[in-house]
Amino acid sequence: MKKLEINDIHSYLKEVQHVSLATIEETADGIRPRVRTMNFVSHNRSYWLVSYGKDVKVRQLEQNPEFEICVKINHGESLGSIRIRGTTEIIDDLSIKEEIRPSVWFFDRFFSGVEDPNYVPIQLKISEIISQNPKDKRFYQFFPQL
Fold this sequence. Notes:
The chain has helices at 6-13, 56-63, 94-100, 107-110, and strands at 18-27, 30-43, 46-51, 66-75, 78-90, 120-132, 139-142. By secondary structure, the protein is of the alpha+beta class. The protein has a single domain, classed as Roll (Pnp Oxidase, Chain A), CATH 2.30.110.10. The chain is globular and about 45 Å long. The mean pLDDT is 93.
């Protein structure tokens, strides 16, 4: 069986539309993890989330830009996953918003244009990828230079 390679991860992620995103929220009761499903965007081997401008996750990422996402991988009856962690950058630059806009597959349903204040691209700056291959059940770790 072929070993899982970083190019296999990129090939799979190009097709992904939804991920589970974990952020950290500082509350009066302490630090709490928060997880939600997000739309996922692949653009020229860079990876993005796109959020509404006023969503709480934007505030959480402004306070603490660390994230982890998880994607499940199915192979027949076998289940695996891709977990990605790193930091985020919330993008305000209109030229970057315009550049990634064609890859935001849901753009026209939610946003009036790249200047819409609710259109908030969030770039994922990846520091580590851990994947469990559903074919061989082994874990593979990558430290990509994306």
